[in-house]
Amino acid sequence: xxxxxRKTALNPATHTxxxxxxxxxxxxxxILQVAGQVGFLxxxxxxxxxxxxxxxxxxxxxTFANVGAVLREGGASWEDVVMVRVYLTDTDxxxxxxxxxxxxxxxxxxxxxxxxxxxxxxxxxxxxEIDALAVLx
Amino acid sequence: xxxxxRKTALNPATHTxxxxxxxxxxxxxxILQVAGQVGFLxxxxxxxxxxxxxxxxxxxxxTFANVGAVLREGGASWEDVVMVRVYLTDTDxxxxxxxxxxxxxxxxxxxxxxxxxxxxxxxxxxxxEIDALAVLx
Amino acid sequence: xxxxxRKTALNPATHTxxxxxxxxxxxxxxILQVAGQVGFLxxxxxxxxxxxxxxxxxxxxxTFANVGAVLREGGASWEDVVMVRVYLTDTDxxxxxxxxxxxxxxxxxxxxxxxxxxxxxxxxxxxxEIDALAVLx
Lengths: 137, 137, 137
What we know:
The structure is a homotrimer of 137-residue chains. In chain A, helix 1 packs parallel to helix 2. Chain A has a six-stranded mixed β-sheet with strand order 1-2-3-6-4-5, with helices on one face. Chain A has a single domain (8-135), classed as CATH 3.30.1330.40. In chain A, strand 4 (81-88), helix 2 (94-105) and strand 5 (114-119) form a beta-alpha-beta unit. Chain A is 22% helix and 26% strand. By secondary structure, chain A is an alpha+beta fold. The interface between A and B is medium-sized, with 29 and 30 residues.
């Protein structure tokens, strides 16, 4: 059991290495911040990061899995998340994304987190990025 | 009085229903996060959400009102806000937005929150989105 | 020594005046939020804010310095930062930015913060904006 009062990096073993010197998540005390996650599949040694597929659906499901893995690494779950930031690249994706979002949170115990969604540029081939802030007891 | 140590959803009665399974705000302990608010008028049963008007001024004033309602729902006020995130769609709106912003915060007791402003895409017809992080005693 | 349990504005003496009624940073209790910083040089009385130079490198280095000054003003350091939000304007800047980022954090004691990077619009002439969330003991 790690000392949660100290700042701790959260880097799930299956995650790809970040493209710069940052952590996939950080916990310090009761605050857990998940870095922007995209739809990269689990890391394959010797190969560059690759998204789960070209579609919004494939990437969104993988992105949720990646955020969830960071939460678990920090001893948290989706129930602890207070804010989800969603970055999409195309306003035409909003309806489909919301269907996937609702399905993901369908079984959540307790109130769903707050959310902000904006449309930005992302690296070529990526359609969605999500980060999250959790507050633990 | 709700138990503020538990995660609580903040959804003012007059707010339109979110387009997906998220809360307009969440409070857990001393952290209150307001979801991205836009210039939607109070909900009218049976009608889709509609912005206060087509102009930056109308939408900004309504957006401030909507953020404020979520803060109040969580027992907070603008004085508790430490960070405001502003999403505009056009750099030409910066000067007018800042005038409205200054007027909004003119009577604030104590130091104004921090702020980040960036230019992004928003759903058609929307010119401004704002979210906020508050820290309560 | 200020009373860190109260909301305190963090505005380093050398920083340019914000373009609206917001603080360059705010600390309340253990939470310190740095507002979006850009590559503006130290303020020169009677002159408008000016970036350190036209290049990504010049602006990024100055932006790091500006974020760092706000952290110090609040009694914090980069070691306390849990989240860095990076706003770039061009995906072609990613590799060069990451080199500068890695150099900045090379000597950091302890785990690096989480990070989200997205591509947005910024005011003319600005190539990078960074804000940061720190959690203090």
